[in-house]
Structures are given as C-alpha cells and as structure tokens.
C-alpha cells in the first residue's frame, strides 16, 4: 500500500527535535480537525517525518489529554500492527499502541453508530482484562499471565483520520494507533490452561467468512504482544493498571466495514462476539 522509501518526504530529512514543537502542534491540529469535521486529512508525516516515533507518541498523548479534558476516561490500551498480514496491508512492519477511552467500548450486539467512524475496518482479537498492575520494569510473559484476570473475544473497529489509510508508522502512532471502537464479549475466560497461540479465529460478515487467523499471528502469541505493550508503557511511565482492558492485536487480516451490518467473531475455545453496525451518529 505504501512505497515510503521512494517518496519525496522533506520532513524525513528534518526530524522533529527537542527544540521545535511546531511539527507536533501541526499534527495535533490536523488530526483534531479531521475528527471534528469527519474529513480525513493528509498524512501527518508531512510534519513529523517517518522515523520520529517519540514525536508521534507526543501527538497521541496530547490528543488523549484533550479527550480526557472533554470528559472521556482512559480504560486501557490497544496494540496495533502485530499480525504480519496486517503489517503487509499497510507496509508498516513494527507494532504500536494507542489509548482506549470509555466511550470506545461496546458490548456484544450493542449497536455501533456508523457515523462515528470515517473509514472503518473490522478485525478479530482477544481482549485481556487485568486484575493487577503491570508497573514494574521489564514485565515478562509470566507477569502478564499473573496479572490477567480473564480474557474476552473482541472485535475492534479500527479507523483512520488519515485519508485513504495512507500510513507510515508515525501517521498511525499519532492517530492513536488508528483506533475506532471495541466490541467486547460478555463471557469471561480464565487464561489458566489456555494456549492462546493456538486459538483459531473466524470473522464473519452477515454469516460469510471474511477473515481467518490464529493466535500465533499476533507476535507469536497474544500474551507476547501484551508483554511487549506492558514493557513499552512502563518505559514511557504510563503503566497498565488493574481493571485495564488491553486489546492484544489482530489475529488475521482486517476487512472493510462497507456499511451497516453484523460482524461475528468466533474464537476456538473462547466463544463468540457480535458487532452490530447501524446508520447514525450517536
């Protein structure tokens, strides 16, 4: 989708430095306007370049701070770009993360208004719900398993404020890892005895299978993905806390939503969850 190394990108030659806040401010303004007007914007790498990931996370932080000031409550985090098939879809070959807010969470079969999205796509995931903080340096897979209270089947409706999903890593990081909404199943499953790497996934739209995958597509296992996230957030002094919902990453290809309809995710041994997308804005 992207051919970034061959593109003319002046911002890439002039990465954001500590002495300049203008590129970050410009990216914040562009993404804020895109969300408010429901009109996707040009890639923000024109301001940030394609390699200054810290600057992109600063954009993300400011946007999340603004949402918090407007009343949204942080409830967890999401991991993006974990599955090789999704990385190939966008030509971005490293994971990233974003913030989950309370107004992004929906329950099984609860209607989602299509009008809140710009360019929605759906993907099947496993959500972790934590019972303990993960705030010590270098949390391991064992730490993640001990901290996980239960897991849930989940559908993420990913979205992008960047026109045409034309992404470099700095674009998606700045845009809160291309977050949209999350639909959670309602039956919790303990992780004890589960081999999440072997969990098979089928995502259906109106009964037709549109995406297949498995847990091993997610950095080898969703548990490995959550450990990666936990380490990154501790390093950035934003640790995961008890009660957080963590979306562990796609188990297979994301697919366009394409209008109103029902997506049903089936996970081997972890039940099902259904996302219902309807016309409307609220």
From TrEMBL:
InterPro entries: Fumarylacetoacetase-like_C, Fumarylacetoacetase_C_sf, Hydratase-Decarb/MhpD_sf
Annotated Gene3D superfamilies: Fumarylacetoacetase-like, C-terminal domain
Pfam families: FAA_hydrolase
Key words, A-Z: Lyase
All copies of domain Fumarylacetoacetase-like C-terminal, residue ranges: 94-275
Annotated region (Disordered), positions in chain: 1-22
Protein name: 2-keto-4-pentenoate hydratase
Source organism of the structure: Streptomyces violaceolatus
Gene: mhpD
């Amino acid at each position: 989708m992207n051919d970034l190394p061959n593109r003319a990108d002046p911002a890439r030659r002039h990465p954001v430095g500590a002495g300049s806040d203008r590129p970050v401010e410009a990216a914040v303004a562009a993404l804020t306007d895109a969300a408010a007007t429901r009109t996707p914007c040009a890639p923000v790498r024109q301001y940030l370049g394609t390699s200054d990931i810290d600057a992109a996370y600063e954009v993300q932080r400011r946007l999340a701070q603004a949402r918090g000031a407007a009343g949204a409550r942080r409830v967890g985090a999401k991991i993006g770009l974990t599955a090789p098939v999704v990385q190939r879809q966008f030509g971005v070959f490293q994971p990233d993360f974003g913030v989950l807010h309370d107004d992004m969470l929906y329950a099984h079969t609860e209607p989602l208004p299509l009008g809140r999205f710009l360019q929605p796509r759906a993907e099947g995931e496993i959500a972790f719900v934590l019972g303990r903080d993960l705030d010590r340096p270098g949390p391991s897979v064992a730490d993640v398993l001990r901290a996980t209270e239960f897991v849930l089947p989940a559908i993420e409706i990913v979205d992008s404020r960047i026109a045409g999903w034309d992404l470099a890593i700095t674009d998606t990081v700045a845009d809160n890892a291309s977050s949209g909404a999350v639909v959670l199943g309602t039956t919790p499953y303990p992780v004890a005895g589960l081999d999440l790497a072997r969990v098979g996934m089928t995502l259906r739209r109106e009964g037709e299978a549109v995406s297949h995958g498995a847990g091993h597509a997610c950095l080898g296992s969703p548990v490995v993905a959550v450990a990666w996230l936990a380490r990154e957030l501790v390093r950035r002094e934003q640790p995961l806390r008890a009660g957080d919902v963590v979306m562990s990453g796609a188990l297979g290809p994301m697919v366009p939503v394409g209008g109103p309809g029902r997506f049903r995710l089936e996970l081997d041994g972890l039940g099902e969850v259904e996302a219902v997308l309807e016309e409307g804005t609220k």
